Structures are given as structure tokens and as C-alpha cells.
Amino acid sequence: MSIYLDYLAEIDSRKTQGLAPKPIDDGVLLSEIITLIQDAASEHRADALKFFIYNTLPGTTSAAAAKAAFLKQIILGDVTVPEISPAFALELLSHMKGGPSIGVLLDIALGDDAAIAVQAGDVLKTQFFLYDADMFRLRDAYLAGNPVAKDVLESYAQAEFFTKLPDVEDEIKVVTYIAGEGDISTDLLSPGNQAHSRSDRELHGLCMMTPQAQQEIVALKAQHPDKRVMLIAEKGTMGVGSSRMSGVNNVALWTGKQSSPYVPFVNYAPVVGGTNGISPIFATTVDVTGGIGINLKNWVKMTGPDGKAILNNDGNPVLEETFSVATGTVLKIDVKNKKLTDEAGNELVDVASAFTPQKMEFMKAGSSYAIVFGKKLQTFAAETLGVEAPLVFAPNKEISVEGQGLTAVEKIFNRNAVGVTPGKVLHAGSDVRVTVNIVGSQDTTGLMTAQELEAMAATVISPLVDGAYQSGCHTASVWDKKAQANIPKLMSFMNNFGLITARDPKGRYHAMTDVIHKVLNDITVDDWAIIIGGDSHTRMSKGVAFGADSGTVALALATGEATMPIPQSVKVSFKGQMLPYMDFRDVVHATQAQMLAQFGENVFQGRIIEVHIGTLLADQAFTFTDWTAEMKAKASICISQDETLIESLEIAKSRIQIMIDKGMENAAGTLQGLINKADARIAEIRSGVKPALAPDPNAKYFAEVVVDLDLINEPMIADPDVNNADVSKRYTHDTIRPVSYYGGTKKVDLGFIGSCMVHKGDMKILAQMLKNIEASEGKVEFKAPLVVAPPTYNIVDELKAEGDWDVLKKYAGFEFDDVAPKSAARTSYENMLYLERPGCNLCMGNQEKAAKGDTVMATSTRLFQGRVVEDTDEKKGESLLASTPVVVLSTILGRTPSMDEYKSAVVGIDLTKFAPPVAH
Questions:
Q1: Which residue from 865, 869, 835, 834 is spatially nearest to 850, judged by alpha carbons?
Q2: What per-residue confidence (pLDDT) applies to 161?
Q3: Which of 33, 400, 492, 666 to pair with 383, CA 20 to 30 A apart?
Q4: Which residues form the Aconitase B HEAT-like domain (predicted)?
Q5: Cβ(138)–Cβ(383) below 8 Å
Q6: What gap in Å lies between CA 658 and CA 797, rounded to an integer?
Q7: Into how many domains does the chain fold?
Q8: From the CB of residue 747, how many other CB atoms can be counted at a distance below 10 Å?
Q9: Separation between Cα atoms, residue 917 and residue 920, nearest integer Å
């Protein structure tokens, strides 16, 4: 009873927050609850019964195992519970969606009681989260002549688990709710500073937008009970910045449908819209939940008689509203004809892109990975029975253009495609299943990934995956009570599942809080690889990497596959020569600025950026590919030269070896396997058998951007432009300004060097600048705090070996201590240098933050409202993004530098070795 009484105490505590009892995942607690159910005299019996039926998490949780075992006893008649008949017990098993419930259903279906076996078989026909061991049991029973096994397999071969589901409605009525104007970051839907609560869905749901917005949504639902609430980004894109499954979960929690009456706070089928559609990475997450993402196009550029856009005094296009989506507007989605109409049925916009055959399947099944599992199950059943599987699911969309060459991403997808027509060459627009080579899970989404794995009944990583890593970087800066409660549990789960983990559950090696993207960049040892990672900055400079939600990451870990269309590509190349005082970060910013100047709109959005940057090693090139998440690109590919790629692979091998030396290798020998693959790839390149990945000369691109390095003559800053009169222009990454714009007078309150955008070279630049300033001024005096968080421990170790860390320590007022890590977030900063633990730090915004209303100059990637810095009533917080030299100088001066000050500060410092690749 002690655990149950603790649970009751927790329930009382949650009541004070307006929360329901937390869903149960602990088998020991559920065992006590089962004991209470069997005690007719217990005063707790009624509540225990409700907890058992309605509040127990499904899948592979230990509670699910206890629940499935008890239901089995009821079905077989070993135990009698008046409120749970055998038929109801079978229904409850059907809602547990895999794991122990499948084992119980198989036990009964393949058992000796013929009548009950048939009933269990009928329930099995509705299930699709089966793994090899489950399918092999069915196959073996079928071969032994079991009639129920035959019946179930025949149903699977027909995919009745899918075909017998209700079709998507022909018409869906919606009522609009404008979540905000301009681009809406997933931070608004699921703030990073609330990351610790993401796995507690009801609690986390309270952080979506504002309490007032939540109340308004509830009121809309009450006023329109026959409609679904569509959350809208007016004059912007919905879901920029990250995939954030927790954001979609929150939207679904407030506006979606309940997945099961027996599983609390798991909703699906949200409807979201944006004037400029849905961010590509967020759209994938919407698919995971069987949701709908609408490109509204309700504001268009006004054009003059010459057909060109009319510009306002600021040089921005003037927009004209074609139809209103003001909060409370009733609209209809005509699914049959793929149109959005007004209440009277008048067409407003074509929405065919939201209702492709593949997306319609996700909506019908309630999730995208239900389709992935379903296809595998149907194929297995048909092969076992020796029959041809009927065409039930939408076939792979295979687009092949005669005589057209392949872009880099098209080549990678052709190599990794599964189940396509043999010998057929696929071009952009094709929609296919692909094998995944590398998978990454980060620590603030990892808890949800673990939940997703449990829900889909997965217990071990797919053998198709070459390597997978669980990071600890997003919770690295503060080892507080929340992290202490969540992270060890996560690391243990992932380590047991088969991932290499940043922390060792057994404590044998030092905790590695390295930024996940840097680790994934190192363990990617094939430029033809596909990488899936639980973070929008999964943007490797080898292979093609897609940031993804926790569900897609779980699916990749469990199956070694993902399903997605082959995106179009935009080619980015360079001409001219860099000035010696420019940093490579300025090239990154200039790419965005010059692209917008050339095309007038963001041609990168939703596409692959194929960047021809092959003279840079993987670490430096990553600065560009990492930034492509802010360019709203789907992904990026770095086209490297042979010798540069070989050198990058050698560096990767050495870092993987360091991981092995630290004791991070697992029983499967994953890390050594990656070194072996790197050696094989190097041999292929050196022999000429398979050179570094490159597109065909006759590949077709959506657009080609040529960046003129001669035009980059001063440092560039990405400015959130927080006071722009047009709110849709605020907090985008499209406002790129030269440092001279600020006239050397803009006050800077805090500087930050860190996140995935920096590498070892940035740390050495910092050290050299401090030495130069002391040499010229006699001392180094900070007029604003400077927070430095190296991305990895490898970098720290190398800086120590080369003497640069001693330089940094000389000027630092704080140095991280892994023996006694910070247990609370810093709330104020002094004007000095802080050497923080490797990890994300301020960039994530979930632990450390700048003071409210500050102007921050940072090397990081995030300038969204409230991420790095929050607003005050008097002043909006600003996160300006710049190169390391600009950040350093801004904290020394306490303001933005002038060009003369900047040039003087970087004299003699080798900022970058980048030069355009020479055509052969």
C-alpha cells in the first residue's frame, strides 16, 4: 500500500495545480492497484479500478506488462472482476497498442480454448505494432496448421487493420484561432524553458501560448462543438525553428481528438495553418499525429502594372488580404475536392498539398508511423502465405525524368530507397521509404522518444541503423533537481535500447554533455548517409540530415526506416575572394541576404540546400549546414572535395576512438563498426571506385544561388528586428544587417559564444583576441558579460593541450567544475568571462537565460522571442546573431563595434581558410 498511498499524495499535490492524476507507468504501483481491485472490502477499490482502466500507459511500460497479465487472467477465467468482463478485457488489450498486450493476445489466440482464441484473433487483426518475434510466432503457428494464425495472417495480408478504419471525412468544419502574427516558433507552442515537463502531457499542456489563449480556445470549442479549432500563424509560417513533438502534442491536447478513452492526454488530429504554410520540419510532426497542415496563402503581394511587387517605404512588399481568417471565422475543408472554402462553400484556396494520398493515409490511421508498421506487417503476412499483397496503401510516388541527372539528395535517396521499382531512377517529388543510417536523440525530447518507443512496443534498436546517440547537451548547463530526476532514467532506457549514451547508467565514464549535432557530425562516416535527429539542427556536413520530432526519431530507431518525399534542391556556390578580416559566419549570413536580394523570396524554404563548399573540413562546413535550419530549408548537403572529405573522416575516426577510449562502446560494437565504415569509405575515395558525393552535371535545381564573396566587406548580423512596424517581419532570420548599420552605438548587455554554430577555431579566435586586446590596451576589461560554452569536451581537451584554455582561464571569473556542477540557473551576470560546461547553454533557453529585456550578441542560432532572452514591460529582449569576433568585441566595448574597431581587433588572426572550390 505504501506506493499507492504515495500516488494518492501526488494526486492531492497535482490537484493544487488543477491537474488530473498522472498516468501510471510503474508496474509496482499497478500491482498494488490490482491487489486493491481484488479486495472487495477495500475502501480504495473503486478508485483503483478507475486507475487500472483509464489511467495506465500502454506499450512496453512495466505498468502495461502488469495490466496485460491481469487482463489475461480475467479472459482465461482465472480471476473474476465484475466490472471487467472477458470481452471488455479484450477491448482494453486492443487499446494497449503493442508490447505485452500483443504477447497476451498471441498466447490466447494460439491457445487451446477455440472460442476465446477466435475472439483474441479478431482483436489481433486490429493491431499493427508487431515486431519480428511476434510475427515469427504467427508464422510458426500457421506452418503448424493453427487456423487462428492463418485467419489473422490473411487479415494482415489484406491490411484490414487499415482498410476497416473509418475514412477521412469528406468535409471538415473548422473555426479559426490566430495564435500570432508573423512566423510562429514552436517555442510558443512548447517553450524550451518548460522542457522538463514534456513527458507529463497534461502539465506541459499548460505552457502552450498563454492561459488566456487556452481559455479562448476552450470557449471556441464550446461555441462550435461540431467544428475543429484551426491554430493559425497569420502573415507567417507555422512551426518554425524546430519539429518539437511536444508543440504538436500541446496543440492536439487543446484542439484535437482523444486517441483512446482508456489512455489519458494522448490526442491526435490537430489542424494548423499558416499564411505561408507549415515549416517543413514541423509538418513532419503534424503527420506523426495524423494532423492537417494548411497553406492558407491568405495574404499576397500587391503588384503594379508592370507585374512587380509594390514596395513600402521600408522596401518591403505591400500585402493584400485575399480572405480573412480572423479568430472565430468558420471555414470548411472540402477534403474530397481538396479546397478550403468559406462557410457558404465558396472556394478560398486550393489545399491539395495537405491531402496527398500519403497524408490522407496518415490521417485515416491516426499517425504516420502506423502506416510504416502496417506496410511491413502486410508484406510479411503476404510473403508468409505465399500470396501477392493487394494494393491497399498509396503506392510509392515514383517520379523519373528521362535524361535528367541527379542532385546530391536524389542520389542519396536512390541508394537508400526501400520497396521501389527495381532499376527505376527517382527524382525530386518521389515519395519513398528509405533506410536510416544514423539516429540522434536529444535530452529534452528524449523522454518523449522513450515514451513513443514504449507506445509502439519497441524494445531494441533496429539492426539497420549503423549508429545512434542519446545526448545530454540540452540539460548540460544546470544539473538541477529536474535534470537529476529525468536524465538518468532517460540514459538508462536508451542505453538498454542500444544507443550510445552521453551518460553511462553504470557510471563508468565521465558524463559527456557534448552538443548532439557535433557528435552526430562525427559519427556520420558516409557522405551518402541519411541521418534523423530529434532536433531541428540535425544538419550534418556529411550525408543528408533531417531534424525530426520525437515520434519520427522513435520510428527510425525501432525500424531503421523513414518515409518522406525527395525534396527539390537549391544549389549554392561561391565566387570571388574573402577579405582577410571577414569570418566564415559572415558568408553564412550573406548567403541568406544575397539569396533574398536575388529572388525576392526565400527559395530555400522546404528545399535542400546543396552547398558547394568542399574546401572546408566538416567542423567548419557545419557552421553553414547548421544555419540552414534558420533558412527554413528542409535539409542541406555539403559537396566536398575528395581530399577534404578524407581528412574530415580521419578526424571523425579519431573522435570516435576517443569515445571508445572513454568507455562509451556498447556490446554491439557500434563505435568500432563506425570506424570500420569510415575506413571502407576512405578506401573507396582513394581508389577512385566511389569519389566524394557530387551531383550530376545535368541535375535540375529549383534555383541556383551564387554568393559573391567580393560583396562581403563588413561583418553581418542577423537581427530579430523586434520593433518592426510589421509584426510579420519580427523574429525572422531574414533581416541581415552590416555592423555599420548600428553606428557603433547599440548597447550590448550580454555576449554568448557557444552552441552548435561554433567549433574549435572560434575558441582559438576568442583566445587570440583577448591576447591582442591586452597587448594593445594593457588589460582586458569587459563592459558586458561574456558567456562561453564550448560545444564538446574534445574541444576543451584540445584547447588545454594547445595552451588556449589557459589563456581563457586567465580572463575568466568562472570555470565549470564537473565534480560540482551548477545546481541552479544563473539569474544575474557580472561583467566578466564565464567558461561554462560544454553544451547548449543560453541557446536552448531552458536552463540559463539572459536577464529580461537584455540585448544579447550571440554566435548561436536562435533569435526567437523569449528563447535566449525574454521581454520586460518596458523593453523587448533582443538576440542578435553574429560571428565570434563581433561577439567578443561587443562585450569588451559594451556596444556594437565600429568597422575601424573591428578591423583593429582582428589584425593577425586567421579567421577562416574558406575559398571557393576550384572547378576541375
A1: 869
A2: 97
A3: 400
A4: 6-162
A5: no
A6: 11
A7: 4
A8: 14
A9: 9
Amino acid (one-letter) located at 676: N
Check whether residue 309 and residue 279 sit in a common domain. yes
Cα–Cα dist 296/284, whole Å? 18
- Answer whether 735's CB lies under 8 Å from 889's CB: no
Residue corresponding to grid cell 534523423: 532
Does residue 390 form part of some domain? no
Q: Which letter does DSSP use for residue 832 in this model? A: S
In a domain, 917, yes or no: no
φ, ψ of residue 551 to 5 degrees: the values are: -70, -45
Q: Which pLDDT score is estimated for 919?
A: 63
Element (H, E) at 66: helix 62-76
Could you say which residues of the chain have pLDDT below 50?
920
Q: How far apart are CA 322 and CA 177, in angstroms?
A: 18
Q: Do 118 and 224 share a domain, yes or no? A: no
Q: Three-state SS for 452?
A: helix
Phi–psi pair at 150, nearest 5 degrees: -65, -45
Global pTM? 0.84
pLDDT tens-digit map of 613-642 = 988 999 899 999 999 888 889 999 999 999
Residues 251 and 316 in one domain: yes
- What CATH number does the domain containing 894 carry? 3.30.499.10
For position 755, what pLDDT does the model report? 84
89 and 188 inside one domain: no
Give residue for cell 573522416: 649
The enclosing domain of 20 has a CATH number of: 1.25.40.310
pLDDT of residue 280: 81
Q: Can you give the residue range of the structural domain that contains 639?
A: 569-672+692-710
Strands (E), 534-585: 544-547, 561-565, 569-575
CA distance 562 to 419: 12
- DSSP E strands: which ranges in 802-912? 812-815, 833-835, 855-858, 878-881
Whether residue 840 is contained in a domain is answered as yes
Last residue in a domain, options 138, 163, 188: 163
Name the residue among 179, 331, 302, 300 with its Cα closest to residue 240: 179
- Note whether 197 and 104 are same-domain residues: no
